[in-house]
Design goal:
The complex is a heterodimer.
Chain A: H1 2-18, H2 27-43, H3 45-64, H4 67-74, H5 84-105, E1 113-123, E2 126-134, E3 141-150, E4 153-161, E5 164-165, H6 166-181, H7 183-200
Antiparallel strand pairs in A: 1-2, 2-3, 3-4, 4-5
Chain B: H1 5-13, H2 36-40, H3 43-55, H4 59-87, H5 90-114, H6 118-133, H7 142-145, H8 155-161, E1 169-172, E2 176-179, H9 182-192, H10 200-213, H11 215-224, H12 228-244, H13 250-274, H14 281-322, H15 330-337, H16 346-358
Antiparallel strand pairs in B: 1-2
Classes of the chains: A alpha+beta, B mainly alpha.
């Protein structure tokens, strides 16, 4: 039943992409359809392999996450000091990292399920979608998605798992590496992580 | 699936550690970079420094400790833990984990009551009784199957709820990440936990169990972190805040500084379009950054006191319920406490004004 709803949602999203005039998609729907793709990828995880999961998640991540904005936040004030080429490079590499992270870590299915808890407005036009990940034989994990509107679409700009903000973690690391070792070192380190994920299995 | 276990493992591990192993990381080559280079850089490093100085004034000492713990883990704790994970059947590992988790529930019950969380305390007492009897001295976690949820409470959280400020981030030898508030907290945790008094063999098994359970999250940190020291620090501090507030305010606290930053670069861009950024602008940028961190700290402090007031009010409410027939003590107390947070600025000014005009 739920699955049907999700696939219906996916359909709606696909349709709206084709016909921009269609009805607006809520922040909750964006999160839920992304979670659905994630669960799907987990269910087929073993068959797909890392590469297969990466390719499956690639369009879903790009659609639901505001990657340009996330990239800018993740280096904080130092974004302004990068050249346009560096900015583009960082965004490309960072996008690959995010997708690799998903593909590597959500690699198999043990009966996990996401459930919607509540939606909260945060001021400045933001919304937080609170959801739970049920893990069989384990405690629920809280997933809070910070959403912002880009043009007319809601997009994820941060994910907070049990109170730990993914973006804040990365930001403290990236700004530190940028400040101490410079841009090339940062790119090298991120690329190293991507390769490690791809080869880990 | 491993990713979500990061947070689960962090909450399970970072906060209960009795053993170094929990936070040691393998091969953190990045930690070797000396902080000296930061000083040589210009504005960005300086700005960064003010940001981290608030949380981590002893960073250079902490990094040394982190490295020490890391090596201790590499050469001692991890090999033993790996062997244990490889040899022991999963039913044994689960039993050991349950046994120590049950003993820790004693700490949870104590801290439930000290924070005024009496309903949760009742649930945790139920867990303790069920698991210690039906669960064969805690080897089987029957309470969870009975629908009694496990909670995470400890003395560090209690101190926070009581309003003691967090203080500076500390990495302790063997104990791992802590804060100036967390240090006395974890000493009390150790003192209140019966396993401390069972003798050396039990201690060793307890340490081994803690380290073995941390394996997953350590692997995750090792895989994901560019600078494991910073990754661990941020994750620890955020997760601690999450536990202290029982997950109520963490998102708000987190959103503030990120959003501020988000709006800012956009404005800067406009400036850059009209005419290159002025040389004086950098200084104000640094000042703004400081203001922002101050704001974030204030928001933090506010959230903490808020949680504290909440807890106190609940406590008083319950006291009033219990002593309904004794009107002596609790009543005036609540009256003095209740208006304090709400009214101090606005109300007194109004009645005074007409009095002055009348006179």
């Amino acid at each position: 039943m739920l699955k049907n709803v999700f696939s219906a949602l996916m359909l709606i999203i696909c349709c709206t992409a084709a016909a921009p005039a269609a009805a607006e998609i809520s922040a909750r729907q964006v999160v839920e359809s992304f979670q659905n793709v994630l669960l799907d990828s987990m269910k087929q995880g073993k068959d797909l392999g890392f590469k297969g999961r990466y390719d499956k998640l690639d369009p879903a991540v790009k659609k639901s996450h505001d990657l340009p904005k996330i990239t800018r936040i993740v280096v904080g004030k130092q974004w302004e000091e990068l050249t346009p080429e560096q900015q583009t490079k960082l965004e490309q590499v960072f996008t690959r990292l995010i997708i690799s992270l998903y593909a590597h870590n959500f690699n198999n299915y043990d009966g996990e399920n996401f459930s919607f808890v509540s939606e909260e407005e945060t001021g400045r036009g933001g919304v937080v979608i609170h959801s739970n990940l049920h893990v069989p034989n384990d405690k629920d994990i809280k997933f809070d998605y910070m959403m912002k509107k880009k043009d007319d679409d809601w997009q994820i700009i941060n994910i907070i798992a049990d109170g730990v903000s993914d973006l804040a973690l990365k930001r403290s690391e990236y700004t530190s590496v940028l400040g101490k070792e410079g841009f090339d070192a940062l790119i090298a380190k991120i690329t190293e992580k991507i390769d490690a994920y791809a080869n880990a299995q | 699936m491993k990713y979500p276990r990061l947070s689960a493992a962090l909450s399970a591990v970072l906060f209960n550690l009795t053993f170094s192993g929990t936070l040691f990381l393998n091969g953190c080559a990045t930690a070797e970079k000396p902080a000296v280079t930061a000083a040589a850089d210009g504005a960005p490093a300086a700005v960064k420094k003010t940001e981290s100085q608030n949380v981590d004034p002893y960073e250079s000492f902490n990094r040394v400790m982190f490295k020490f713990n890391d090596h201790l883990d590499d050469y001692l704790a991890k090999p033993i833990s790996d062997a244990y994970l490889f040899i022991a059947p999963s039913i044994v590992k689960q039993g050991v984990t349950n046994f120590f988790s049950n003993l820790k529930d004693i700490n949870v019950v104590i801290n439930d009551s000290m924070q005024g969380k009496f309903e949760q305390g009742a649930e945790d007492t139920g867990r303790l009784i069920a698991n210690s009897t039906l669960g064969l001295l805690g080897l089987v976690d029957v309470a969870t199957d009975l629908g009694l949820k496990k909670h995470e409470e400890d003395f560090g959280q209690t101190l926070a709820v009581w309003g003691i400020p967090r203080g500076a981030y500390l990495v302790l030898p063997i104990l791992g990440p802590s804060t100036t508030r967390g240090l006395p907290g974890s000493l009390l945790d150790i003192a209140a936990n019966p396993s401390t008094y069972f003798g050396a063999p039990v201690q060793v098994i307890s340490m081994l169990n803690t380290r073995a359970n941390a394996e997953g999250s350590l692997k995750f940190i090792n895989e994901a972190a560019i600078d494991p020291y910073l990754f661990t620090r941020e994750a620890y501090l955020q997760n601690q805040q999450h536990l202290i507030t029982d997950g109520k305010v963490s998102t708000h606290v987190d959103i503030l500084p990120l959003e501020e930053d988000l709006e800012d670069p956009l404005d800067d861009k406009n400036n850059a379009a009209t005419g290159k950024t002025k040389p004086g602008a950098e200084k104000t940028d640094a000042e703004q950054e400081n203001m922002r961190t101050e704001q974030a700290l204030a928001a933090n402090a506010y959230a903490e006191t808020d949680a504290k007031i909440d807890a106190l009010e609940k406590k008083l409410e319950r006291k009033r319920h219990r002593h309904r027939h004794r009107h002596v003590l609790p009543k005036p107390e609540t009256e003095t406490l209740a208006p304090a947070p709400a009214t101090p600025e606005v109300k007194p000014a109004e009645p005074q004004a007409p009095a002055n005009t009348g006179g």
